[in-house]
Amino acid sequence: MITPTTTIPHLIAEGFHALSDPIRISVIELLLQRELCVCDLCDILEINQSKLSFHLKNLKEANLVNTRQEGRWIYYSLNLTQFQILEEYLANIRRNSVFSPPRSCCE
């Protein structure tokens, strides 16, 4: 969740942390194809709802997924804007990194 005191480095760290679990990666892979409700995700991933809810909460707090409620069901989709921020961060590292031989600290 973005708050006025949240910094860009904090958002980036939350995003990568949320992506550091195999179950959450599996959720992302499924949401690449289409929006899904919790019950569909539970069935496909073969995990119980409480375990999945924990992982979805992590993804939502990192702003990586959007939610939409329809009746009593909550549907999840990817927040591509947040993925673009993470992608740009990595691209920046690649563009701006200087490859030089290691130096001794005493040089």
What radius of gyration results from the CA coordinates? Answer: 18 Å
The number of E-state strands comes to 3
| SSE sequence, one letter per element | HHEHHEEH
Class from helix and strand fractions: alpha+beta
Mean pLDDT: 89
Q: Which regions contain 5 or more consecutive residues with pLDDT less than 50?
A: 1-5
Helix content: 55-70%
Percent range for β-strand residues: 5-15%
Largest sheet: 3 strands, antiparallel
User: What assembly state would you assign to the polypeptide chains in this entry?
Assistant: single chain
Give the CA-CA distance, first to last residue.
Answer: 45 Å
Keywords: DNA-binding, Transcription, Transcription regulation
InterPro entries: ArsR-like_HTH, HTH_ArsR_DNA-bd_dom, Metal_resp_trans_reg, WH-like_DNA-bd_sf, WH_DNA-bd_sf
Protein name: Winged helix-turn-helix transcriptional regulator
GO molecular function: DNA binding; DNA-binding transcription factor activity
Structural write-up:
The chain has 107 residues and is of the alpha+beta class. Helix content is 57%, strand content 13%. The protein is built from 5 helices and 3 strands. The chain has helices spanning 8-18, 22-33, 38-45, 49-61, 80-96; strands at 36-37, 65-70, 73-78. The chain has a 3-stranded antiparallel β-sheet with strand order 1-3-2. The longest helix is centred in the last third of the chain and has 17 residues, at 80-96. Residues 1-5 have low confidence and may be disordered.
